[in-house]
From TrEMBL:
Protein's name according to its UniProt entry: Aluminum resistance
Organism phylogeny: Eukaryota, Viridiplantae, Chlorophyta, core chlorophytes, Trebouxiophyceae
Species of the source: Coccomyxa subellipsoidea (strain C-169)
Alphabetized InterPro entries for the sequence: Met_g_lyase_put, PyrdxlP-dep_Trfase, PyrdxlP-dep_Trfase_major
Pfam families: Met_gamma_lyase
Source taxon at top rank: Eukaryota
């Protein structure tokens, strides 16, 4: 059994958690002084280069033609991502929507999509056509072939298999999911993505490398486009929204591919110069992007604290607590039973600022094949940039912890989590 008796059975959870936080002070300092400061300079330089000003927050209605704020935000995101172009749109309803839009823009009937890092995230299975309702227009229904490379032992990319995986005449897009998603594998680092891009391009220079960047933005000093990825996609209610953007997503990369994605989001001929958005939303998008490096830093510190405390309690965690830059602010805690998953998520909910009185229960969620339980009393509905914990109720029963506007919120939540988990048989 993964769980052993906690190391300090007589110590009160409050003292126990804060002692662990004190032990992590060097790790926290490294995150702030090296990662957060560097990425804040990136965001600041991009905004300064775009000459962002108050006039960019005027907003638009209807078609939204000529919206200077929307255009400036696109330029800023492209610069931050190290890309030729970007679109940042409130009209994306989720990260899955942004990823789906990019894939449908890049692929045509007869093409092949290759998933490089094992099984994709649950919600993408229906986009691809691995499951879901017939007749809804998945990639497979449009004649796109799909293949995936299983992960190597230990959860890394199977580098030997990837070296001969690309069929130049068929493999149009090689997709890389940066985050672990709902899987017990390491999140991919920028160095790993750079290696994968090089191996793919050696086999087929024209193969499009598309990276699902969800949960990865600002966790390292560069983004995937800076190491050769052709497209990156993500959600604004995750890292780049800085916990304050009410919705939306982005696509960045090669200019021609971004233009195709914009046409897929809207319509051919409409492209990037359309899409009304209020001035207050534009301001939140810009401000959220500026806040994002700091918010990600807080989430990383919170994740390191979760890992440190729960590993001391005897649970398997990934990544370990003393890893200063784990490439994603998701921390997986393997709790071993549905009862402990529910106890964990309910403790998180009670420590949340919104809906603390709600008792989470497992339920069916659109896009997921298993019942999922969420502890997420967030200001933005579904925001995983804010403190939250969730997971599908299936063996080996893993809770995925993410977000947090400040690491101390995780410390307060862990006081309840430790107490409840100790009481859970």
């Amino acid at each position: 059994m993964l769980r052993r008796h906690h190391l300090n059975p007589e110590q009160q959870p409050m003292l126990y958690v804060w002692d662990a936080a004190a032990d992590l002070a060097p790790t926290f300092s490294q995150i702030d002084n090296e990662l957060v400061a560097h990425n804040l300079r990136r965001a600041q330089a991009a905004m300064r280069g775009a000459r962002l000003g108050p006039h960019h927050f005027s907003g638009s209605t209807g078609y939204g033609h000529g919206d200077l704020g929307r255009a400036a935000l696109d330029d800023i995101m492209a610069e931050v991502m190290g890309a030729e172009a970007a679109i940042v749109r409130i009209q994306f309803v989720s990260g899955t929507h942004a990823i789906s839009t990019a894939l449908f823009a890049a692929l045509r009937p007869g093409d092949e999509l290759l998933a490089v890092a094992g099984k994709p995230y649950d919600t993408l299975e229906e986009v691809i056509g691995l499951r879901g309702t017939s007749g809804h227009g998945s990639l497979r229904e449009w004649g796109v072939a799909y293949r995936e490379l299983p992960l190597a032992e230990g959860g890394d990319i199977d580098w030997a298999a990837l070296a001969s995986a690309i069929t130049p005449t068929e493999t149009k897009v090689a997709s890389i999911q940066r985050s672990c998603g709902y899987a017990l594998r390491p999140t991919l680092s920028i160095a790993a993505i750079e290696r994968a891009v090089r191996i793919i391009k050696e086999q087929s220079p024209d193969c499009i490398v598309a990276v699902d960047n969800c949960y990865g933005e600002f966790t390292e000093d560069r983004e995937p486009c800076a190491v050769g990825a052709d497209l990156v996609m993500g959600s604004l209610i995750k890292s780049p929204g800085g916990t304050i953007v009410p919705g939306g997503g982005y696509i960045a990369g090669r200019a021609d591919l971004v233009a195709a994605a914009a046409a897929r989001l809207t319509a051919p001929g409409v492209g990037t110069d359309a899409g009304g958005v209020s001035g207050s939303t534009l301001r939140l998008m810009a401000q959220g992007l500026f806040l994002a490096p700091q918010m990600v830093g807080e989430a990383l510190k919170g994740g390191r604290l979760v890992a440190e405390v729960m590993s001391r309690e005897g649970y398997a965690v990934a990544p370990a607590g003393r890893v200063p830059s784990p490439a994603s602010f998701i921390t997986a805690v393997q709790v071993g039973s549905a009862a402990r998953m529910c106890a964990f998520c309910r403790a998180v909910q009670r420590a949340s600022p919104v809906g603390s009185y709600i008792e989470p229960v497992p339920g069916v969620t659109p896009g997921y094949d298993d019942e999922v339980i969420f502890g997420d009393g967030t200001f933005i509905d579904g925001s995983t940039a804010e403190l939250s914990a969730d997971g599908p109720l299936r063996p080996p029963y893993v809770v995925y912890c993410q977000g947090g506007t400040h690491w101390t919120h995780w410390a307060v939540a862990l006081e309840s989590i430790v107490e409840d988990m100790r009481a859970c048989a």
